[in-house]
Structure formats: C-alpha cells, structure tokens
C-alpha cells in the first residue's frame, strides 16, 4: 500500500500543465468541506433546539402533574400531598390552582394563566420564580395563619416579562385581574375584578411562559376563583426525567381512584417528534451537497485517468498489476474526501462553538419560543457525517478506478 499511496499523493500534486485537474480537485475538496461543515452546523442547530426546548420545558414546568379525573378539583389536599411526597423517585411536590383570567391596566389588557402557589414549594418544581426579579418570592409568601389582608392593601402578583410589557405595567403598578368566576348582582352575573400590585416579573426566554403566565398566593387564588381550600393540580419533580411516566403511574396508585397524571413527555410528544423529523430531513437534504462534491471527485479522477493514461500504461508494463492501479485511484478519492471531511469538521465545529458561545443569531421568541439560536454539536454527529462523506466519496471513485485498471498498455503506448 505504500507504493499505491505514494503514487496517489504524487498524482494529486498537479503540474502546471495539469492546472485544470488541480482546480477541479481543489473544488472537490472545497465541496466536501462545505457539505460536511453545513451538516455539522445544521445538526448542531437541531440538537440545540431540541436540547434548549427540552431543558426549558423541563426546568420551567413540573415533570409529573396529578389532577382529578372528575369533579371540581382536589380537596383535602394536605394529607394527600404529604403522602405523595414519599413515593419513590419523587424529589419535590407543590400544590397549585390554575385559572385563565384577563390582566388589565388602563386600556391595555392580555390573557393569562394565573397560578396560585406556595412559593417555597413552587421553586422546588419550577424555575420560573427563581428567574423573577429580587423580592418576588418574598412578596408571595403566605400571610401568617389567622391574618387577612388589610383594607386597601393590594395583593401581590408576579407576571411574565412579556405579559407585563403587553399591559404596560412596571413593578409597583396597580393592575386588575378579571376572573370568569363572576359575582351575582341585581343585574345578573358579572365578571369578578380584583386589583393586584405587580410585585415582580420573570423572564425565562420561553415565550409561552413569559407572555401568558403569572403567580399569586394560593390563598388569594382560592378567594379570587371562589374555590376555598381547593387545588387544581399537584406538581412533582422526579430524580430521573426518563422515568417520569413510570413515576406518574406510581403516584396514581398512591393517590387512589379518581386521579390521573400526565408528564412532560406526554405534554410535548408532538413537539419532539417534529424536531426529530426535522433533523432527519435536514440531514438528507444537506447530504446532497456532499453528493455534488462526490460527483466533482468522479469528474476529477476521470480527468486524471485520461491525463495519466500513458503513465498508467508505463507502470503496468513495469509489472504493476491492475488491482494496484485501481487502488491508486481509490486512494486518490480517499485522500480528497479525507482532506475535505477534516476541513469541514474543523469549520463546522468552530462555527457551532462560536454560535453557541456568543449567541450572535437572535430569533423572534413569539415564533420560535426561544430568543437565540442554540448550537449543540455532538461528537457522534461528526463520526456519522464523516462516515457518510467518506463513504459517498469512495463510491464516486469506483468508476474511474475501474476504468484505470482496464487500460491496456499496448494500446495506450502504440502511438507514443
């Protein structure tokens, strides 16, 4: 193999009179490099999108949620909550009461999902309040048992930063929550309107939460929604994300009849399925760049065989057998693909690292749910891309290498 490799490398260093072959070879290397780099970057982006969406979804929401199958909610929840905390693999639990409301300030308003929480427990299952402005969690602490809000005191609320911007509210402003749980009046049922004080905002980078989510005290939510000592959900964190369905079934059994659970996998199954499909389609489409580069390799080697017909005939007349000639051109294609692949891997990983480190590509959070384009290059992707690139390139060398091995020395040298 040393002889074949030496000749293959020698042929790649084209002389001046073979400048066209050299240019086509350079274009082939550049094409392979561009295709490999594009594949690495595209896969890094799709991996980053999946990773960021999964991390943010898992970080900002509970892994498992328990709710009633029928009825208006979970009553007598305190002993149930303590019992469920002891279920194996459950690391944290928090009560919550959800309701859709309208948040208004002056003439500006926006729809929101408001959750009544116990903040010390909520931060153990969700990171949203951890990302709130200083003092937000303290403001949502429940009042001492037996005390009620003083007349004129506004109850605190923490909103997503985009929602607060939508209604034009800043910290300390008075806003109105309009609940569909209306009040009966002599004129019929009208929506309940309760003033709150904006105690803080949070920014998760996830538009779904930043634009339509808010937190108030659990007791305030129960009064606002006319649901005394009632929960709509109990949220759980588990020690292994991939075991969330299994832990959810254990929680259902521990809770007894009339309860059901869902988990982060079920809630986001279609999203992650779409991301996987996008990754496969992206790989297939961008692989066409490598295929085009492989066609350039075929052209370059075909031209090389035509240019080196006399040299091949001389080598064969000296005793070089056809299989050695074939290996010479196979090694030429291999060298072109290896050089191009290595260059593409270097460019792709450098570009992916720079994009992930500096976050210089910004996105519209309203459209993509995240505000910067994420990059997550993986070593396994580089291995797969390199194997595909070199494999496709070697396929392109089969025809010219076979053609070179079939040259007849006598015919090639007849007119020399």
UniProtKB/TrEMBL annotation:
Query: What do the Gene Ontology cellular component annotations say?
Result: plasma membrane protein complex
Q: Name one GO biological process term.
A: lipoprotein localization to outer membrane
Q: Which residues form the ABC3 transporter permease C-terminal domain?
A: 283-407
According to the record, the segments passing through the membrane are 20-45, 280-306, 327-355, 375-399
Q: Please tell me where this protein is predominantly located.
A: membrane
- Localization (cell): Cell membrane
Q: Name one Pfam family in it.
A: FtsX
The protein here is known as: ABC transporter permease
Q: What family is it from?
A: Belongs to the ABC-4 integral membrane protein family. LolC/E subfamily.
Q: Which InterPro entries match?
A: ABC3_permease_C, Lipoprotein-release_system, MacB_PCD
Question: Keywords on this record?
Answer: Cell membrane, Membrane, Transmembrane, Transmembrane helix
On the tree of life, the source organism's domain of life is Bacteria
Q: MacB-like periplasmic core domain: from which residue to which, for each copy?
A: 25-253
Q: How does it sit in the membrane?
A: Multi-pass membrane protein
């Amino acid at each position: 193999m040393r002889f074949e490799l030496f000749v293959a490398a020698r042929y790649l260093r084209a002389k001046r009179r073979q400048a066209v072959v050299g240019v086509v070879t350079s274009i082939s290397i550049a094409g392979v490099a561009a295709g490999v780099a594009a594949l690495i970057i595209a896969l890094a982006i799709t991996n980053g999108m999946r990773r960021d969406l999964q991390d943010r979804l898992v970080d900002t929401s509970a892994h498992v949620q328990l709710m009633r199958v029928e009825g208006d909610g979970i009553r007598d929840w305190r002993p149930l909550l303590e019992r469920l905390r002891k279920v194996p693999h459950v690391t944290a639990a928090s009560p919550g009461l959800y309701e859709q409301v309208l948040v208004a300030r002056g003439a500006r308003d926006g729809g929101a999902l408001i959750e009544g929480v116990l903040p010390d427990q909520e931060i153990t299952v969700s990171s949203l309040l951890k990302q709130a402005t200083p003092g937000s969690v303290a403001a949502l602490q429940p009042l001492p048992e037996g005390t009620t809000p003083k007349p004129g005191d506004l109850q605190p609320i923490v909103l997503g930063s985009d929602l607060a911007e939508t209604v034009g509210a800043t910290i300390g402003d008075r806003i109105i929550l309009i609940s569909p749980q209306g009040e009966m009046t002599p004129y019929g049922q009208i929506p309940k309107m309760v003033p709150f004080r904006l105690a803080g905002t949070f920014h998760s980078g996830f538009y779904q939460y930043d634009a339509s989510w808010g937190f108030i005290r659990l007791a305030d939510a129960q009064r606002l929604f006319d649901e005394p000592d009632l929960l709509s959900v109990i949220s759980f964190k588990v020690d292994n994300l991939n075991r969330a369905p299994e832990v959810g079934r254990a929680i259902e059994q521990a809770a007894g009849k009339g309860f059901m659970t869902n988990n982060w996998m079920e809630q986001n199954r279609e999203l992650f399925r779409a991301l996987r499909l996008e990754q496969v389609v992206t790989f297939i489409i961008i692989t066409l760049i490598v295929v085009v580069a492989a066609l350039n390799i075929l052209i370059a080697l075909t031209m090389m065989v035509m240019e080196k017909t006399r040299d091949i005939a001389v080598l064969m007349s000296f005793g070089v057998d056809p299989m050695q000639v074939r290996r010479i051109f196979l090694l030429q294609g291999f060298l072109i693909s290896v050089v191009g692949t290595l260059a593409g891997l270097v460019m792709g990983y450098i570009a992916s690292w720079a994009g992930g480190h500096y976050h210089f590509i910004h996105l519209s959070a309203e459209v993509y749910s995240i505000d910067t384009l994420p990059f997550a290059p993986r070593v396994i992707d580089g291995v797969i891309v390199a194997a595909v690139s070199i494999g496709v390139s070697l396929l392109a060398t089969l025809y010219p290498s076979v053609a070179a091995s079939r040259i007849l020395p006598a015919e090639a040298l007849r007119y020399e």
